[in-house]
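Researcher: Can you fold this with cobalt (II) ion in place?
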Amino acid sequence: MAVLNILRYPDPRLHRVAEPVREVDQHIRQLVRDMAETMYAAPGIGLAATQVDVHLRVIVLDVSEGRDQLRVFINPEIVERSVDSKVYEEGCLSVPGIYDEVERPDRVTVRALDEHGKPFTVEADGLLAVCVQHEIDHLNGRVFVQYLSRLKQSRIKSRLLKADRAVA
Ligand code: QAP
Ligand code: CO
């Protein structure tokens, strides 16, 4: 097990489009374990492989109170979206300290493979729906700040670049 390094916005690698997983093998299961450890250590509620510079379509998330309900989505696809949308204040482990409102469909139906390669479908609402859409965006190279105004995006960029320089 290992805690992996998380890429920080505005790293260009966050905008790569992830490849589908061809076979859910030991290598993928090890990646899932490391991503889960990284998410829990952060702590966060969701993490996409893109954020740890692995460009494969793998997501881990846990939106439970007890932090004991890990969900794994491999090659996730949104097969249905509700017409009604909801605004939620989102954050991101790749955009530390920044939170802002994003509007998304209120409910989505997601099809994916689990860590054993078995297909499943979940009808997500509430925080799970927000989180799974946020993480699938990462796999498509999209970071939540891209839903915000250009002005906000450039302010966030300079704030994070400045913070990184202060640490270095
Ligand atoms: C995505 O985000 C998400 O800024 C997961 O300093 C977030 O786990 C989906 C985190 C909100 C839906 C709603 C963020 C930790 C964690 C920070 C996270 C920070 C420390 C974010
Ligand atoms: Co994120």
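Model: Folded with cobalt (II) ion in place. The pocket of cobalt (II) ion (ligand 2) is lined by residues 92-94, 134, 138 (CB under 6 Å).
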